[in-house]
C-alpha cells in the first residue's frame, strides 16, 4: 500500500532524521509524530504522522536511505479503524480470550482488544519498527500488549481470536493469507478482518459482521471516507 504523498514528494534527505532513525526509534517516533485520536475510535490515542510532519512527505526511496521501511505504523488505516471499532463495540468477540493482532502496525487493533477485555493480546508484525510503536501506543492507552516479530503466516497459533486490519492490498500477500486464515478457522480460531474494499479481499467463506463509514486522509486513500466492513472467516 503506497500513499500519494510518498510517491509524489520531492522533500530532501534530512541528516538529523537519518541520525535518529539509526540510533533511537523512540526518539524518532516522538519527533516525527503527534498524539492523535483516530476519527473512528476517538477514545484511543496513537502516535501518528500528519501532513504537518516531515515523515508524511518522504518518498519510499528517501525512507530507504535513512533505514526506515514504509512506516505503516504511523497511520491509522481504514481497515484497522473499522476492526478496532467493532471490537470495542462488541467486546464479547475478544473478552476473556487469547488474541493475536496480525500485521499490527501501530497496534491500534491490539489496543482495542486489550481495552475490550481480552485475556492476552499479542501484536505480530515483521517490521522491526512496529515493536517500538506498539509499546509506545500501548503505554498511551494504559494497556499491556505482547509483541512478536515472527512471521506467523502458515503456522498454528496459540490463540482464540486472530484480528487483521487492512491486509488484502497485495495479490501475493493475499494468496498467502487466505489459506492460512481458512486453516486457522477450521482449527477453531475466530478470524476477523477489517477491510475497506481492497482489491484482493476473497469472495468466499466470509460473513459480514458490521459496516462503517471511516474518515481517512486523501493523501493515503482515494476518498475522504472509506466504506469498511468487518468480516469473519467461515
TrEMBL record:
<protein>
    <submittedName>
        <fullName>Methyltransferase</fullName>
    </submittedName>
</protein>
<keyword id="KW-0808">Transferase</keyword>
<dbReference type="GO" id="GO:0016279">
    <property type="term" value="F:protein-lysine N-methyltransferase activity"/>
</dbReference>
<keyword id="KW-0489">Methyltransferase</keyword>
<dbReference type="InterPro" id="IPR029063">
    <property type="entry name" value="SAM-dependent_MTases_sf"/>
</dbReference>
<dbReference type="GO" id="GO:0032259">
    <property type="term" value="P:methylation"/>
</dbReference>
<dbReference type="InterPro" id="IPR050078">
    <property type="entry name" value="Ribosomal_L11_MeTrfase_PrmA"/>
</dbReference>
<dbReference type="Pfam" id="PF06325">
    <property type="entry name" value="PrmA"/>
</dbReference>
